[in-house]
Design brief:
about 500 residues; alpha/beta; Rossmann fold; 3 domains; 6-stranded mixed sheet; 17 helices; 24 strands
Length: about 500
C-alpha cells in the first residue's frame, strides 16, 4: 500500500437542524488502498459519502477536503467526477431499454465532434470492461442482465471517468458469494492500477479479507481506525454497536416434530421477466413453527419460490395448504390464508411513502379496525403504535413518513405490517439486505420470537452464515429446481455451495 495521501478529510461536520450527522470527522485515504468505512445506519456514512461525491456541496458543511495536497470544493456530482472521484451507489439504477454500454456511460456519453455514435459507445465500453476484467455484454440491452450483472454495470459506470478514487456503497448487497469474489478480484485489479477505493459495507468478513484499513463511525464521529494487521471482527462490531453481538442465533434447536402446514409437489412456473428464472419440479415441505431457509446463488430461483407461495406467480403442480390442495392462487387469497410476504425491494414494492408510519403498518389489514364499513381510527392508531414499539422501530414521531427511517427501521416497519395480521407463514426475501449489524440482531430476535409464537418462516438470504444461523432446515435451489435438503446440524456453507453451483447433484 502506498503511503502517499490522496484525500484528507479534516474536521468535517454537518448538521440537519438539531441533528449532528458528522462531528469533526478526520480521515486520511492513501493511494492504492481499499479503505472500509463501517457503521450502523445513522452513524454518518451516507452524509460522508454525499459530501465526498458532491451530492451535498462542500460549503454546506464545515471543515476541509484536501486532495493530493490541495483543498478542494465540490459543488456537484459532475464536479466530483471531474476531480477524479467516482461513485457506485447502493441502489441499482439501470434503464432496461438502453444497451449496457449506454448504461455504463449514462450522463457522460462519449461523442465525436459532439455527435453521439452507439457503435463508438459500445467500442469504448468494451475497452473499459476488458481493462478492468468485467464480464458484461456491452452491446446487449440491459433488460437481459441478471441482478449481478446490473451491479457490475453500476461499477463500470463508476469507472467510466477513470477516477483516482472510487467510492463503493454496499456493492455486494445483491451479489452471491461467487459474484462477490469476482468483484473482490476486480477491486484488487483496481488497487494494482493505483485506484483508491472507499468501501462502504456491513459485511465484516469482506473487510477482513479485502481491505487494507478500516474506519468505524458511530453517531457522526470516528470511533475506531485499524490497519489490516490490527483487524478484529470483535473490535469492529463492538465499536459499531457498543457491545458484542449475542451468540444466541447459534443455539441448537430441537428437531421440529409438528405437522406439515405447507407442501409443494412438482411445482413449475414460467419466467416472470428477464431477471427471473423458470421453476421446474420444486418440492418442499414446511412444518408449523419451523424456520426453513432457501439456499442457493442469486438468480437460482429462490425468490420465485416465494412468489409462487405468496400467490404472485402462477404455477403448475400441487400446493397443499393445511391439507387443502390449491391449484391456483393470488396474493389476496394467500394473505387471507395467513401467508405474508416481505419483498427484497422494500423501497419499490414494500413501503408506502405517501402514507405515514401508522398507515404503513395497517395497510392490508384495515378490516381488523373496521365495523359495518366504518374505520375505528383510534384503534388503528393504538395497535399500529404498539406494534412498532414491540419491534423497537426507532422514531420520534409515529406519524412521520417512512423516508425518515433508517434501512433497519424500514424493514422492521414492514415486519410490523405483516405481524399485525397474525400470519401462519411469514415469507422473508433477504430480510437484512442493506441493514447494519445492530439492526440485523434486532431482526434475528424478531424472527425467533415469531417462530416461538407458532408461525412458520421461510427465509431467502444470500448471507450463508446468516441462513445457517437462523434456520432449522435448508432447502437448496439451483437453476430453478430443488437439489438438496438438510437439517441445519447436517450441513454447512460448503454443502449449499456444492449443490447450489451444480458441483454436486
Amino acid at each position: 500500500m502506498s503511503l502517499n495521501k490522496i484525500l484528507e478529510v479534516q474536521d468535517l461536520s454537518k448538521s440537519f437542524g438539531n441533528v449532528d450527522a458528522l462531528q469533526k470527522v478526520n480521515l486520511t485515504f492513501f493511494e492504492a488502498e481499499i479503505h472500509a468505512v463501517l457503521g450502523q445506519n445513522g452513524a454518518g456514512k451516507s452524509t460522508l459519502v454525499k459530501l465526498l461525491t458532491g451530492l451535498y456541496e462542500t460549503k454546506s458543511a464545515t471543515g476541509k477536503l484536501i486532495m493530493s495536497g490541495k483543498e478542494i470544493e465540490l459543488r456537484s456530482v459532475s464536479d466530483a467526477r471531474n476531480k477524479g472521484i467516482g461513485y457506485v451507489p447502493q441502489e441499482i439504477e439501470i434503464v432496461d431499454n438502453l444497451t449496457v454500454a449506454e448504461n455504463i456511460f449514462a450522463g457522460q456519453l462519449p461523442t465525436h465532434h459532439n455527435i453521439f455514435s452507439l457503435k463508438n459507445t459500445i467500442k469504448v465500453a468494451q475497452e473499459l470492461v476488458e481493462k478492468y476484467e468485467l464480464n458484461l455484454p456491452v452491446s446487449s440491452f440491459a433488460s437481459n442482465l441478471s441482478t449481478a450483472q446490473r451491479q457490475t454495470t453500476m461499477i463500470a459506470r463508476g469507472l467510466a471517468s477513470n477516477p483516482s478514487i472510487l467510492i463503493l456503497d454496499e456493492p455486494t448487497t445483491s451479489l452471491s458469494k461467487e459474484d462477490a469474489e469476482v468483484l473482490a478480484r476486480t477491486m484488487r485489479t483496481l488497487r494494482a492500477k493505483n485506484v483508491t477505493m472507499i468501501y462502504i459495507t456491513h459485511r465484516i468478513p469482506e473487510v477482513m479479507n479485502l481491505c487494507d484499513r478500516a474506519t468505524v463511525l458511530r453517531d457522526g464521529k470516528v470511533v475506531l481506525e485499524l490497519d489490516k494487521k490490527e483487524f478484529s471482527s470483535e473490535k469492529i462490531i463492538n465499536s459499531m454497536i457498543g457491545r458484542l453481538l449475542s451468540a444466541d442465533v447459534n443455539v441448537k434447536k430441537e428437531k421440529n416434530k409438528s405437522k406439515d402446514i405447507l407442501v409443494l409437489e412438482n411445482i413449475s412456473a414460467e419466467r416472470k421477466g428477464p431477471q427471473s428464472i423458470a421453476l421446474t419440479n420444486i418440492n418442499l415441505k414446511v412444518k408449523e413453527g419451523e424456520i426453513v431457509g432457501l439456499g442457493g446463488l442469486v438468480g437460482s430461483g429462490r425468490s420465485e419460490v416465494l412468489d409462487v407461495i405468496s400467490g404472485r406467480l402462477p404455477f403448475t403442480g400441487k400446493m397443499i395448504w393445511q391439507d387443502k390442495v390449491l391449484t391456483s392462487t393470488n396474493p389476496s387469497e394467500m394473505r387471507k390464508n395467513g401467508i405474508f410476504y416481505l419483498t427484497e425491494d422494500r423501497k419499490r414494492e414494500g413501503l408506502l411513502f405517501n402514507l405515514n408510519l401508522k398507515k404503513n403498518v395497517t395497510a392490508g389489514s384495515l378490516d381488523l379496525f373496521s365495523k359495518f364499513g366504518f374505520l375505528n381510527e383510534n384503534k388503528e392508531s393504538d395497535i399500529a403504535v404498539a406494534s412498532m414499539k414491540a419491534l423497537s422501530v426507532k422514531t420520534k414521531n409515529f406519524s412521520s413518513e417512512p423516508s425518515n427511517l433508517s434501512g433497519g427501521n424500514q424493514q422492521k416497519l414492514l415486519l410490523a405490517r405483516a405481524l399485525i395480521a397474525n400470519p401462519k407463514i411469514l415469507l422473508l426475501d433477504e430480510p437484512t439486505k442493506g441493514v447494519d449489524v445492530g439492526a440485523r440482531q434486532e431482526i434475528y430476535r424478531i424472527i425467533r420470537e415469531v417462530q416461538q409464537s407458532g408461525t412458520s418462516v421461510i427465509v431467502v438470504s444470500s448471507d450463508l452464515d446468516e441462513l445457517l444461523a437462523l434456520v432449522d432446515r435448508v432447502i437448496v435451489i439451483s437453476d430453478g429446481t430443488t437439489v438438496d435438503e438438510f437439517e441445519r446440524a447436517d450441513g454447512d456453507e460448503s454443502r449449499i455451495l456444492k449443490y447450489g453451483t451444480g458441483v454436486s447433484k
